[in-house]
Structures are given as C-alpha cells and as structure tokens.
Amino acid sequence: MAETTGWLLDVYAEEDGITLWLLTDAGQHLCLRMDFDITFYVAGDFRLLRQAWIYLKERDVRLERTVRRDLFLGERDVMAVTTPDPANIQKLFGDLQRQFPSLDYYDVDIPITLRFIAQTNTHLLGRCCVLQEGEWGQTIESLSSPWEINPTPIPLSILTLVPDCNPAIRTPKQLHVNYNQKEYSLSLQSPRPFLISLKADLQRIDPDLILTDYGDTWLFPQLIQWSKETGIELNLNRDRERHVLTRKANSYFAYGQVTYRGAQAHLFGRWHIDRKNAMSFGEYGLEGAMEQARVTGIGVQEMARKSPGAGITAMQMLTALRNNIMVPVQKQQVEGRKTLTELIRADHGGLIYQPIIGLHGNVAQIDFSSMYPAIMVKHNISPETVGKEDAPEGLIPKTLRPLLEKRLMLKNILSDLDPRDCRVNVLKARATALKWLLVVCFGYLGYKNARFGKIESHEAVTAMSRELMLQAKEVAEDMGFTVLHMYVDCLFVQQEGFCKPSDFTQLMNAIEEKTGIPIVLEGVFKWVVFLASRRDARVPVPNQYFGAFQDGTLKYRGIELRRRDTPLWVRKIQLKALEVLARANTPREFVDLVPDVKMLVEGAKRDLRNGRVPLEELVVRQRLSRTIEAYKTPSPAARAAMQLQAHGRQFAPGQSLEFLFARNATGVHAWELEEALDSGKLDAKRYYKLLDRAIQTVLTPNKAWCDLKRLF
Amino acid sequence: MNILPALKTGKLIAIYAPDAACTETMTLIAELGLRGPVTIMDGGNRYKPYQVAMQLRRGTVDVSRAASRIFSRRAFTCYEMNTLLSSTPSLNHPCLILDLLNTFYDDHVPMHEADRLLKSCLAQIQRLVLSGPVVLTLAPPLAEERAFLLEQVCAQADEVMVREALVCQPAQPSLF
Questions:
Q1: SS3 (DSSP) at A355
Q2: Is residue B30 part of a domain?
Q3: E-state strands within A456-539
C-alpha cells in the first residue's frame, strides 16, 4: 500500500462509492476511488414503517432498526436505510417518498462532501494523508484543521478565459487566455482551429481551476455546441468519464426581491468558476470562496455560486452529523402559541434609534463585533435551547463558535498589519467571506426553509440585542456622553472635549464589561451628518448618514453613492463632493467649502453638456421585478427590455438591465442595443436632476448651518 | 362584509379576496377578541397585531384583557401549516386561519406534495369545525396550475364569501 500526502480538492459521488481528487505534494493530481456507504433514516407510524421495510427489501439496500436523535423530538425509533450507491440516493428516496409520503425522512439530501468530511474528519482544501492500493483509497487521515489561521497555501494552476466583449451584447471575436502571467488570444472566427488550440492548451496546462467571464452562460454551452458540430471531442473535465454538469437558469424570490441566477456549468476533477455568475465573488474573490469552502464543506465551484445561507446550512448539517443528530428533510417545528400582547412584545427587530438630525463634530462610532452571532454563542441561543434553563450548548452556538473565533482572530491580525503588507488583501478576503457566513446565520434562525430554525430563537436574538444596546446607551450616558444615534449594533457618541480614539477607551471597556460582547471603535468622525427625510425635514432617516474620519477617510450609508442604480458619473461627482467636504476639520469649516462643491458640480454639468462624459459612466442599471408582460406601467428597465426583446432577447424576472436616459419616445436606450446612442440624443436634463439630487443630499446640512450663521 | 352573524359551530366560512381579506379579518379578530377567546393561525404573514390592538382600544378600556384572549401561531411553510393544524386541539371558540393557501402556492413544493398536505390540513380543519366556528381566508394563486388547491378548499367550505379587488376611484383633489 502506498502513502500519499496532499490537498483534498474535490469529492463526488459514484454508483459504487466516491471519487476523490488530491493535489499531491509532488504536484501530481491523484484520482482515487473509495467505498462509501450512505445511510438515511425514516421515522413515523410503525405500520407504515413496516410497509416501507417490505417495499425496500427487494432493493440493494441494508435495513436496520435503530434509535437516533431528532433535535426537537429527542430519541426516535427509526429505520436506517444504507446504500452503497451514493449517486442514486435521491432516486431511491424519491421512490420511497412517493410510496410513503407521510413518513418523516432524515439525512436524505446531505451533500456527499459533508458526509465524507463528517465521517473522515478531513476538510476540503485541507492537508491529508491517503493510504492507497492501486486506484482505490483505503484510509484517509486529516493533517490540518479548517480553523487554522494560516493554512498551507495550495499551489493551484489557474487558467483564465475571458471573451473580448459581453456575449449578451455582441458576438465575441476573441477569447483572451491567461495562464501563469502569460496572456494570448484565440480567435473565435472559426470553431475548428479554436477548439483544437483550446484542447491543446487544456492538455498542456491541465489547470485545477478554469476561471471565466460568462463561462456558465455563454462559453461552456458554446464549446459543447461547437464540439458537437465539428466532431472534435473536448472534455473540459479532468475526470474523462464525466460530462460537464449543467444546471438551468432560474429566478427566485429572496430578501424582498426577485433574483436571477444564470445557467451553471460544473466540472469534475477541476473547478470552473464564472466570475460573472458567482454570487459574491466580486467582493472576496477566489481566496474568499476557498475560505468558505474550507469551513462549510461545500465544494469551491459550488460555494462560489451559492449564497452564504447555503454555506451556513451546510455547517449546521456538519455539526448535526458529527453530533449524531438527524437532519430532517423538512423542518416541521412551529411557533408556540402567543397572546396578542406577547406577540407585540416579541416580534421586533434590532433597536434603531432616531438620530439627531444635522451636522455633528467629534463623534465616535462604536460597533459590537459580529453582534448577533456573538449573542447566539454567549447566550446559547439555538432553536432547541430557547426558553430552557441550563441547556447544554445548542447546535447553532456549536456551529458558530469556531467561525466567530476565526473571524475575530483574522480581524486582529489585520488590525496589526501595515496596509501595504502583501498579506492584507488575502486576509481581508478571507475575513469578509467569514463575515458573510456570520451575517446570514441570524436570518437562518427564522428562515422558513432553514433545517434548524425556529422563530422564537430568532426573536430571542433580537430581544437580547435590544437589551444590550440599551445597556450600552445607559453606560455611555452615565459617563457623560450624548448618544446621537444607535443602529442595531452600533452607537454614535459625543462628549465635549473628547476627540481622540483613546478618549473613548474607558467607555468601550465599560460597555464590553457590562454586555460581555466584544466591541470595536470604528473611528472618530471629524464631522458626521445624519440626514432628514426629504418629505419632512423634522423626521430623521436612521440609515442615511455620511461623515469624515480624522484621517480623512469617508464613511457613507444609504446615500446615492451606495445605490446600485445610480449612474457611475453621479456617484463619482458625489464622492468628489464628499472628498472636498472632507477637507473640513470642524462643522464650522464645512460651510466654507460649499462654493468649491458648487464649482465642481457646474464643471461636471459642463462636461456632460459638451459630450466629455463617456457614455459608460451614464449607464443606469436596474432590475426587472417581474416578466415584461406583467408590467402595467413599464419601468425604465422594462422599456429597455422591450427594446431588446424586439431584437430577439429574452428576459426573466430578477435580471438586470443597463440603459441610458434618452430623448426618444420611450425615454431610454438599452445599452446592449447594437446601434450606439447618438450623444445628442442623451437626456442631459434627466442626468442633471439625478446629480442635483445627489449633491443636495451632501449639502443639506449646510442649509441649516447657513441659517444658523444668519441668526447669530 | 359582515362575517360575524354568519359564524356558528359546525360551519366553515371561506373568504376569498385578492389580499386574503386582510382588513376585514383584523376587524373580525378584534370584534371576536372583545367577546371571548379566539385563535388565529397565520399562513401568509397576514396577521397585523398593531391593527388589532388599535381596534380593541376603540371597543374597550381594558385592552390587555381582550389582548390576552387573542392567541396566534404562524406557519411559514405548508409542512408547518399541517403540523400547526394537527397540533391545535379542538376548541369551543372561534378559529381564524389567515391566508391558508399562501405556503401551498410556493413553487418549491411539488404539486403532489402540496395536494397531499392540503388534504391533511382540510381533514384537521374539519375536526376543528366540529367544536367551534372556523373562518379561513384565501388569496388567488400566483400560478394558474395551483388553482386546484383553491377549488378544493372552496368545495369543503359551507359558505364562500368573495370580495373583489378594491378599485381605486380617481378622486378630485381639493383646491384649498
């Protein structure tokens, strides 16, 4: 038997076990097969279970009566169904469920990687040691932990394929290939020579990761089609026996909006990530996706496309598997009975204070670090522990504790590093990836499709957070601070003569001691503005503010700059205006800078009038919230979609549309149209309006100050 | 729409409206709450506790007494709705099921599964009807292929009240 060490890259199911891919220390790619039995559980009425037993007896499965733990119901007598064929478990379950729909099913739809990780104690992208006999792996031993702060870097070979334009707009003519800092282009004019070249490159480079733009929605389907048409066999997988796994595009409703997810192309033995179809790839890149894969147990190419919610669900499943808790197919625990009074008291979100409108100087922003997950861990809030005294650590805190600790450690390392340090970007990406998992874990306590959620635990977290915020406020006020604003997990405080970060250390220590949740000083603002509602100047808007920290960096929330549908030109000018205002060291100096901002705006408008603003910067991006036919009064995005529909393009709800405001019958010009918009047809007035609105937002506090000056 | 006189034990009333008769049911809940205990099962996030509390305040000075008689539970999936109904004991007071079919219209739930669960729910509702009046509200399906669920519920109801969509009349704004 041979022993090999390396990194675990991929695991997937076969009809007689599983396939593992390892990148060995010698740089070889090792493909191993392993026997891997899968067990799922069935519970319910004993008469039905008996019938199910008889139904399954004829199949190639092992049946056993056993006792397993349901998180909510405790120990249950169940029928264990074990199959040596992991690839077909869904079919077996589907058949059984159709026959016996009223039985309770557990551990059915757990991804194979999670089962493997739970059973072998290894982790994806982790170091491991394999004992093999021929192509069969006998044992696998983990040599690392997913919670290591500095995992050994994996020497991945990455091939990047990018078309020369967006295929949705026009047909690409070239494919830019990048490998190992070498860059060249392949012509797409003739499929045959292109396929031959690409095939040769794939064989020569043998990449671990194919990183593409539009790979899911255009390149891979196109390659498959060309391969069929030309008869040139092109297998993009490293596993030659597999075809590319394709998934259809779909639209779904989540977080109050319709989201469109394009088709997907997954590979076996190597990964494919389409940067244009990967959910948060733009925010944390490959390092972040790998970090999420490492801790969640979901494969890299899968995790890059999935929401952090899928990641946190996988982590909960992993905790359940490791603690011998069954994972139900459907959560059935319902809310307990509440009276009207109890419901009104319990059903609240985080604490949001009405800020004191206007411009304030020397304000400190204090944040609770990962407040909600920290509450869940510290106060043991989990669906099965809520309302119970002295309950053992629940499934959710057990899942979150290492994640929370790892993120805090990464953040501590980052705060000690010089911003120019080469490790900063990688560590930031990893910390951001973990942050997203922590952000969604709270929502998943109350999410309808969460496996281990219960609305009471969701409510308990927000109740606790409100209590802690009030405690923090009392501490601050007892120490003589004025609390200007509180928003879910952060406070803005001010006191005469307090302007350095060290001035607030005593307050932070006192809050941390009182609440038991770690807090950090986000920074001290030279000045900060809390905005009022446009409709009623007396009403503050809690989530709209902007300010400049003492080092001149800006922080802005809820204003045009943060909105995705604001054109780049408007965002740029608003940011420049804020940068001008950031030169003010006190609120009084703020007013003096208004003429500079007005000059900046006039210059920007002049540039637009004279056609000196590139059209790309004027593009507006909006999302379709329904099918085009369903619009009674079509939005600008719907009107742009109609223009493209006339050229044969199809749209689904959730898809984003790019367009320019134009002086024509529809008022818009779809950016993806073949014919470019004549710059004379641009609706400049509309853009002036957008700019004026954005500038009005940042100059609003001046109005109050100017009036004040006039008074005194 | 006056539902109160139609309520009686052994009778299942279904109210069909585009918004699952949200406003009318909040009024009904408050009126019932002023008279005695009432149970609400919410399947579509239609229960507006503040609205009910405001209406209670108009009817009594002892709001907390009335509020303590209004019990509610929410279901967020059709599986939860099924569990919720089956775990509710037979009551001798009115029971309101808000937007019963909302979770059944979820296209992630296979059609046959929605059908099976609804049949189970209807059996439970029938059990509840025997001990007290039951009112359930319904909204139109999001997709036409799920309309059969609505038909099943209406077929079982003793009385189906239909409220058309409210038409917003153009109004002349006052000049002064």
A1: coil
A2: yes
A3: 482-487, 490-494, 519-532
- Cα within 13 Å of Cα(A341), Cβ side: 10
Chain A residue with minimal CA distance to B79? A332
Q: What's the whole-number mean pLDDT along residues A440-463?
A: 89
ipTM of this complex prediction, to 2 decimal places? 0.92
Query: How many Cα atoms within 13 Å fall on the side-chain side of residue A670?
Result: 20
Mutate to test the interface with A, among B39, B55, B62, B80 (most CBs of A within 10 A): B80
- Smallest CA–CA distance, residue A259 to chain B, in Å, is 15
Give the nearest partner residue to A339 out of B71, B76, B103, using CB atoms.
B71
A569, A615: one domain: yes
Print the domain residue range for B82: 20-162
**Which among A584, A95, A484, A9 is positioned nearest to A271, based on CA atoms?**
A9
pLDDT above 50 for A711: no
pTM of the model: 0.88
- CB of B73 less than 8 A from some CB of A: yes
pLDDT in tens, A635-661: 999 999 999 888 888 888 888 889 999
Partner-chain residue, chosen from B49, B64, B108, that has the shortest CB–CB distance to A343 = B49
Residue B168 lies in a domain: no
Phi-psi region of A572 (alpha: psi -120 to 50; beta: other; left: phi over 0): alpha
CA-nearest residue to A448 within chain B is B76
Last residue of a domain, one of A92, A113, A142: A142
Structure tokens given for A700 = 């609003």
- The reply to whether A93 falls in a domain is yes
DSSP bridge pairs for A358: A530
Q: Which residue of A has its CA nearest to B89?
A: A337
A344, B116: Cβ pair inside 8 Å?
Answer: no
Q: Which of A108-112, A391-395, A653-657 has the lowest mean pLDDT?
A: A653-657
> Encoding tokens for residue A189?
């004019």
Of B74, B83, B112, the CB nearest to A332: B83
**What are A141's two structure tokens?**
């031993």
A332 and B87 in contact by Cβ < 8 A? no
For residues A485 and A397, membership in a common domain is answered with no
Q: What is the pLDDT of residues A551-597, one digit of tens each?
A: 899 999 999 999 989 999 999 999 999 999 999 999 889 888 999 99
- B19 to chain A, any CB pair closer than 8 A? The answer is no
Answer yes or no: do A518 and A585 share one domain: no
Look-up of token digits 């020397």? A362
Q: In angstroms, what is the C-alpha Rg of chain B?
A: 17
Q: Which amino acid, one-letter code, is at A498?
A: F
Using 70 as the pLDDT threshold, list the residues of chain B that sit under it: 1, 165-171, 176
Radius of gyration in angstroms for the set of CA atoms belonging to chain A, rounded to a whole number: 29
